[in-house]
Amino acid sequence: MQHFKTLPDYFDYLKLPRPEHPMLSVLNAKGEGVLPCAIESSPPITNDCYSISLKKYVHGDLNYGRTKYDFTNGALIFIAPRQVLQWDNNVIFEQQGFSINFHEDFLKGTDLAQQIKKYGFFSYSINEALHLSPKEEKQITSIVDNIEMEYQNNQDIFSKEIIISQLTTLLKYANRFYERQFIHRKEVSNDLLEQFNQYLTTYFESGQLQEKGIPSIEHIAAQMSVSQRYLSDMLKKETGKTTTEHLHLHLIGEAKNALLQPHKSIADVAYELGFEYPPYFSRLFKNKEGISPSEYRNKYKLN
Fold first, then answer.
1. Cβ distance 27 to 98 under 8 Å?
2. What range does the record give for the signal peptide (predicted)?
3. Phi then psi dihedrals of residue 87, to 5 deg
4. Distance in angstroms (rounded) separating the CA atoms of residues 58 and 285
5. Domain ranges of the chain
6. What are the phi and psi torsion angles at 70 (to 5°)?
7. CATH of domain 2-181
8. Cβ distance 163 to 145 under 8 Å?
9. pLDDT digits (tens, 9 = 90+) for 150-160
10. This prediction's pTM
11. Positions in the chain whose pLDDT score sits under 70
12. DSSP letter string over 133-175?
């Protein structure tokens, strides 16, 4: 897989205009203008850059999986360094909006270098993009205009600090707007929770738990065609519990049934549920239920 270590090399590959700064590029299509078109297709590639893009498609919708997405209102997409990128030429759009690309080293020595890692939306897929209202889009684009002004002007010792400050503000607004989107997409989050529970039920009942062990959250998310981080954030917002906590609830539910079978030892139950080490199962059970597996079994016998 081809990997690009510098922003200019990455832009050369995309056949886009070389950036004014070796570690920062701002492409901003104002009014009726359109963004420069990158190459029509690419095999999987990676790079060392962050990307923040507002996509407004002048012609057509975007098909992602089985879903058609209307991005004419504007969708904010975040990409982190070393994420695998790939696209084909099935559909070509004229795009309005903006695209800010910056090398991870551009953030070195700043607070944002650590803060940016906390924004989970850099791990979301394109179908989990942030859909902006007209008012939100106006707020975001005004920040981008400030960044572009610093980028285009003769840069001085204050330029980087100002740009970093504006990027920080942009990400804080994006975080706020994603919270709004989570609330408004309650129906979607309910559906995700139902899919999550259904997948675990099928996985357990089919014997895959004994055969393959406890499924990873990454595996479950892939089976649901969503990113791991997005699934976790949506369930956390809707239920107050993370994906791992929901998985543990399923395991504990299965454990309770198995513990009531007297011919099975605690270790047998642990191995049956995919735990490699029975003591870990016992700690998890006690953490969730307040009593150990043996205490649970004895309590049932007393009843």
1. yes
2. none
3. -155, 160
4. 54
5. 2-181, 187-302
6. -95, 110
7. 2.60.120
8. no
9. 998 877 889 99
10. 0.66
11. 31-32, 57-73, 89-94, 126-127, 183-190, 301-303
12. PHHHHHHHHHHHHHHHHHHHS---TTHHHHHHHHHHHHHHHHH
